[in-house]
Design brief:
Blueprint lengths: L18 H10 L3 E6 L2 E5 L5 E5 L4 E2 L2 H6 L4 H11 L8 E5 L6 E5 L18 E4 L5 E11 L4 E2 L4 E2 L14 E6 L5 E2 L2 E2 L7 E4 L3 E3 L1
Antiparallel strand pairs: 1-2, 2-3, 3-4, 5-6, 7-8, 7-15, 8-11, 9-10, 11-14, 12-13
Bound molecules: zinc ion (2 copies).
One zinc ion (ZN) binds next to helix 2 and helix 3.
InterPro entries: Znf_SWIM
GO molecular function, one term: zinc ion binding
Protein name: SWIM-type domain-containing protein
Length: 206
Amino acid sequence: MKTTASPKAPLPVPTAGHLPERSRRARAEPMSVLPLGDGLYEVESASDHTYLVDLEAGRCTCPDYVFREVRCKHVRRVAIEITEGHTPPPGRVAVSCHDCDETIFVDEDATEPLYCDEHTIRPGDTVVNRETGDRLTVVDVSTLRADAVEIGAADCTVAEYATNEGYDPEVPVVGAVYPHATVARNGVVPSSLRIYVFPRTRLEAA
Ligand SMILES: [Zn+2]
Ligand SMILES: [Zn+2]
């Protein structure tokens, strides 16, 4: 094929042959993708144009989509970034873990505090009480808020309990036991197996 352009050379006609090229550019070109929620993404191209992608509908505001109705490089790029874990899929948002800087993708309606895998606590996990440094074993991770759970013995809510005042009253509560029960000559001392209830943020995964 001649490489010198002839003045009479016809304009390139879009064909299926252009599809791998769009695919390649979707991956190789510098673009930044900003998730806006509701399945919408703002894509800024290297040429400083900003387009709006509706991923589930496969739509974009760029000329390639609007005039040629093809799956443009912006839609492809959003799909690639989701597959590779760089941007959240529709219905999810990117937030930071409460206890570290790791970015996690959570449901759009998820409530704080949110944690990465490493900092998520489950029954049986060891946690550290941030106030005392004590280690405890998690018994229950509740969805009830600290300001809605009463501590019977103290006649107040978990949120109102004196040493919990520095913690957000809206976080859920976690029940935990001290790992070593006290064993007397006549058996286990029941009070040593008591479950203590803490605001979630007072405990840290150990
Ligand atoms: Zn586009
Ligand atoms: Zn974390």
